[in-house]
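Supplementary notes for students who missed Thursday's class. We covered one full example, reproduced here. Read the sequence, then the structure, then the short commentary at the end.
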Amino acid sequence: MAKRQHRRAGAALVTAVLAAGACATGCSGGGATLDGPPAADPVGTLRRAADTLVDAGTSKARTSMEMATGGTRVTIRGEGVYDYRGRLGRLRVMLPLDPAGASEHRPITELLAPGALFMKNRGAGVPADKWVRVDTATLSDGNLVTGGATDPLAAADVLRGTRTATYVGATELAGTEVRHYRGTADLAAAARGASGANRGVLAAAAKGFATSAVPFDVYLDDQGRIRKIRHRFSFLTGQHRGTVAVASTTLLYDFGITADVRLPAGRDIYDGEIAEG
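Structure (token representation):
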């Protein structure tokens, strides 16, 4: 019973956000020139990008998730840190403002871990000092969408399924010269190439999304590290099986910083009834 409630807790987050309504957002950079030629093998370069992040160790992250359904567009933003070797992250996720411009929800603290999502300030029915735990492999999207932010390492692991990719050109992103690539990844192929818990996460997403094909734009620095990645998902909502267009953007910066992410103790995890709204 508790597991079903916790799966609904994740899905209800997206449902609540879609009902709130807000404006869309995006990120862009100006022109720049990198020394040296672009990678001769864009597909191979992008398939290795997740391993390059693991080698980098840690970074700060900003996330933006835009959703559009029935003429309504909303944006969820997040900010935090990620430990790629430990596969642990912490994000402070801000839900959209209501139509009057006021905040209806407190920020949600999310802890990202192999196979699990922990949420604090989840909402109605959950004590303020308790966490909600969701098994991400049980979610129809593998938590690429449900939590309102895509796990940065899972976002990179999607690129393991790169089918086609082209080099767009050099540009500048937040003062860093980067190379811009555009392509399409296949979630089923990404799942086969992923390691650990992300294999199940991506396999769930491959089955749960409207299509396994994921168009993307990604920007790599001169060390091959992802600085920005934007996926475009087609997500099926649980209640009416309608299609929601989702654009998830992740910005990574300040590599090598301290990222001390600690998961909650068992006594701090809520196991009671969770409101749907």
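Commentary. Confidence is low (pLDDT under 50) at residues 1-5, 15-33. The domain at 2-268 is CATH 2.50.20.20 (outer membrane lipoprotein receptor (LolB), chain A). If anything here is unclear, bring it to office hours.
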